[in-house]
Amino acid sequence: MKIDKGEIIHQQFVKMCKKIIFYLLFHAYFTVLKGIEMVNMKIVEEPSSYGMNNFNNQQTQQEDNQLKMRVPPSKFSGPQHLTRLVNKCFSKQIDSYTYKLCPFSNVSQHEDSYRWNPYNGILGVWQEWEIHNNTFVAMVMREGDNCGNLFRSMKVFLRCGNKNEIVNVSEPSTCQYHMNFNTPYACHPHAMLVFPTLSEELRNEWELIEGRLVNEEITIQGYKKRLHALFEKAGYYLSGTAKDKLSKEAVKKEEKKEKEENGEFDTLYQCTQEYQKIKQQLDALKMVLKDPMVDSKTKDSVNKMEENDKQNKNSKGSSKRKKFISKLTNLMSKKDNTHGES
Ligand SMILES: *[C@@H]1O[C@H](CO)[C@@H](O)[C@H](O)[C@H]1NC(C)=O
Ligand SMILES: *[C@@H]1O[C@H](CO)[C@@H](O)[C@H](O)[C@H]1NC(C)=O
Ligand SMILES: *[C@@H]1O[C@H](CO)[C@@H](O)[C@H](O)[C@H]1NC(C)=O
């Protein structure tokens, strides 16, 4: 067997890097613990009127921060006057869920429940229009959170109403949702027509296609196909390849993330990146807590951990992890017991 010296050094690097991350995670853990203590105290101090009214908004806000779109949304497209809906969000509580629609961006669902794990998820990310009969009918949002072996999707039908509001939501088939959204921007008889929004070139092209259908030079299928291509050109439809690319990239990213969460790094570069990320998070935590020092008890524990870690240097990774977890559990209960002292 040939042993490459460079390879050995590389492996040692990766090992070291993992160790640093391990330590940082540990450090972050206590910073978080300290944070939780402070937050707990704050909640106890809330007046007794703290209740359902602000519960929804606060909860939705908090959980929104944890959600992440699986794919980037498409650019704005469609009637220009709808740009007024960009960067705006609308919520509505229906039964025990709050729906939040951010047109041309994302739509999400938040379960209004004190359950320890209420459902919060993205139902879709803005992709393209649904067009029928020369009319923009619905915003199609896809690539939401996964749901068995498919991803959630939502069609948002725009209807005329005297204010912007979510009217209702239904789920015609599993994890595929429909939403009716009222907006004054859909009220003018021409507000949602496609033809006037097109460039002159595309209008001419469309007229040619219409002419060929009338003259029976093309079939209705051929007409539909050409119109579809025209809407792709206009940016109202995503091409099949663009859709494929989006979803494949998202899946690839998720697989990679899963691998990293399991502590597998392909390269030293990835390891370093991970280290930077954790370090940034830790720094941010410290900033939030406005207390850069971990109390002396915790520091002692960390030092002890490091000591133990050194002694365990030769043991296998998995048993090390087990020991780490049991130590953490111990430390946590110790910390809980001494909670009242300080
Ligand atoms: C959804 O879109 C809004 C508006 O663009 C944005 O502020 C928000 O961060 C998005 N939500 C997620 C989970 O990315
Ligand atoms: C198509 O839209 C036009 C006006 O936008 C309307 O008058 C016509 O009835 C619609 N046709 C169908 C088949 O829906
Ligand atoms: C949603 O509201 C629309 C308009 O008010 C109504 O026509 C439709 O039946 C409603 N759908 C559901 C599922 O409630």
From TrEMBL:
- TM stretches of this protein: 20-39
Q: Where is the composition biased (Basic and acidic residues)?
A: 293-312, 333-342
Name the source organism: Mytilus edulis
Q: Which PANTHER family match?
A: N-ACETYLGLUCOSAMINE-1-PHOSPHOTRANSFERASE SUBUNIT GAMMA (PTHR12630:SF6), N-LINKED OLIGOSACCHARIDE PROCESSING (PTHR12630)
Occurrences of domain MRH (ranges)? 87-189
Q: Can you give the residue ranges of the DMAP1-binding domain?
A: 194-307
- From the Swiss-Prot or TrEMBL record, give the protein name: GNPTG
> Mind naming one GO cellular-component term on file for this protein?
Golgi apparatus
* Keyword annotations from UniProtKB, A to Z: Disulfide bond, Membrane, Signal, Transmembrane, Transmembrane helix
A Pfam family (short name) is PRKCSH_1
Q: Where is this region: Disordered?
A: 293-342
